[in-house]
Amino acid sequence: MKRIFPILALLTGAFLSYALYLALEVAPTEQTMGDVQRIFYYHVPSAWTAFLLFFINLVASVLYLVRRIPSADRIANWVVIAIGGVTCIAAFMVKQLPQGVEPSSVATTGIGIAAIYFLIRRYFSGDGADALAVVSAEVGVVFCTVVLVTGPLWARPVWGIWWTWDMRLTSTLILWLIYVSYLFLRRFSSSSQTAVLAAALAIFGALDVPLVYFSIWFFRTQHPQPVIGGGGSIDPRMLHVLLINWLAFLCFAGLLCWSRYRLEIVRRQVEEAQALKSLESVR
Amino acid sequence: MSIVSITRATLVKDLRLEWRSKDAINSMLFFSLLVVVIFSFAFDPTAEESRRIAGGLIWVAFLFAAVVALNQTWARELRNQVMDAYRVSPAPANGLFLAKALGNFIFVSVLEALMTPLFVIFYTLRPLGPAYQLVIVAGLGTWALVVNGTFFAAMSLRTRSREIMLPLLLFPILIPALLGMVEATTAILTGEYSAKFWIALLVAYDVVFTIGSLMLFELVLHAE
Amino acid sequence: MNFLYAAYAATWVIHVVYLGTLVTRYMRLRRDVDELKRK
Question: Chain A residue closest to B197 (CA)?
Fold first, then answer.
């Protein structure tokens, strides 16, 4: 495994450079915003990557908690299968989907959720799932920070303001806050069961997300604010560049997670060994 | 032993202890008074503007007072190793949690009842919207503060810098509820729009997190 | 226009800083492993 890593790193570097070239040179210039709009090709993929990583954290946290109790484990399996199945069926049965939402994307999301859950369950044991939770939270915060920095840098030249209570920016900010507090809990907790506490916090964070969404949505209807990032349809050439950039960043995030994961495993082994050593020296 | 009897027994015990010692109550009351005075010095608007920002001011003041109160929630239990006794007993953990949350709710409500007239006096507040809704908002908002606050206070027990850990964990998760409380209060005070959506949001928030806390508290109690 | 380059630069600064922390932590772990092996 270790020999593949440098090769993958080089490939990812090349891919990212290619994606950067596409974003800066090849993508068409936006009509109203001009070249500054190209920040979009870094801002949006980072946001999607961060959300994906936070979702992985949620799944890993739930798995960690649920694996300890066999009955809960079975129930969770069925719940996830149900989620996948229901979204698939509902995607094609529901007549009126919200604007811009395709049935295929809803179905893919449902299947994706189930797939991620079972893949993590298959390849990560109890403690491995906990390590994955830490890793995805940390790398997720890094990408989230990128979103929060590039967002205002995009907003300032285009709309004249640094910040606005825009849906994506605000929910990103709150997610960032929740996960930074998650990382603080991990670092400051001196309990032997930090993993359980952190998993509970991750679940609370996930419960919070829809509430955040609705509260901001209503706040914006009562206090109209500018929209950053624009909705509506997107030029297919821009979409192509966007997706390439997202793929490149996903590869990069994957490598980051892999390195951090190996680091975490070694760190835990070292901690255990040190604890054993200090116990032995007492005897 | 049922949840109800556990809850009631623990709650009565806590209230009786508080009433007898009065140390927490007195310091908290004075702290709340100080907060109102400081805010009044820091934000001194005319009567017109005051209605617009009073909602935010009041809830931020309540929030800080509540955090100080919540930090003491489990301190007494820790001192006398009561937590270990609870862990070993067959009593359902939910009972303990509910008792703590209800006790905190009562405590923080008392503080709010003290701070509100002071705010009204300093800011010359008069609600232009339906005033009865303020009580509903106060109740729902305080429960949101307290239910998550009690849960996170339990989580922070075995952390370094325990006192700062509680607000660190609580504030991000509380943001939608805070938005709801402030917007609802402002809506009622200014009378410009309806607070109904925000009240519905607060209800949803309270339901979600009460259930979440009750389900996960057992884990947290044993995770020390 | 400057904002565009600032945004791209900021992105990579953040990533490089994080990679730096990973490298530092890895080196510290290596030191700890060596220490454990010695004892």
Answer: A218
Using CB atoms, pick whichever of B173, B179, B220 lies closest to residue A178: B173
How many Cα atoms occupy the beta-carbon half-sphere of A72 within 13 Å? 9
Q: Do A36 and C4 touch (CB under 8 A)?
A: yes
* Structure tokens belonging to residue A277: 């050593």
pLDDT greater at residue C33 or residue B13: C33
pLDDT tens-digit profile, chain A (283 residues): 578 888 888 889 998 888 888 888 877 777 777 778 888 889 999 999 999 999 999 999 999 998 888 888 888 889 999 988 888 888 777 777 666 667 777 888 888 899 999 999 888 888 899 999 999 999 999 999 999 999 999 888 888 888 888 788 888 999 999 999 999 999 888 777 888 899 999 999 999 998 998 888 888 887 777 665 555 567 788 888 889 999 999 999 999 999 999 999 999 999 888 888 888 887 6
* Closest to B142 measured CA to CA, from B214, B69, B72, B196: B69
- Length of chain A in terms of residues written: 283
Calculate how close chain A gets to C22, using CA atoms only, in Å: 7
Distance in Å, alpha carbon of C37 to nearest chain A alpha carbon: 10
Tell me the C-alpha distance between A57 and A49, whole Å: 12
Question: HEC states along A171-195?
Answer: HHHHHHHHHHHHHHHHHHECCCCHH
- Best to test chain A binding among C2, C12, C18 (most A CBs inside 10 Å): C18
Question: Which of B172, B220, B223 lies at the smallest CB-CB distance from A178?
Answer: B172
What number is the ipTM of this complex? 0.92
Give per-residue burial for A132-149: e unless 16+ CB within 10 Å, then b. bbbbbbbbbbbbbbbbbb
Neighbours of A249 (CB within 10 A): 26
Whether residue C10 and residue A20 make contact (CB cut-off 8 A), yes or no, is no
Q: How far is A179 from chain C (nearest CA, A)?
A: 16
Q: Domains of chain B: which residue ranges?
A: 3-222
Distances in Å between the Cα of B135 and the Cα atoms of A98, A221, A271, B165, B212 are 36, 25, 52, 30, 25
Average pLDDT, chain B: 84
Q: Which two tokens stand for residue A170?
A: 């605000």
- How far apart are alpha carbons A259 and A275 in whole angstroms? 24
Q: What are phi and psi of B90, to 5 degrees?
A: -80, 0
Tell me the residues of chain B between 139 and 198 that have a Cβ less than 8 Å away from chain A. 148, 151, 155, 157-161, 165, 168-169, 171-173, 175-177, 179-180, 183, 193, 197-198
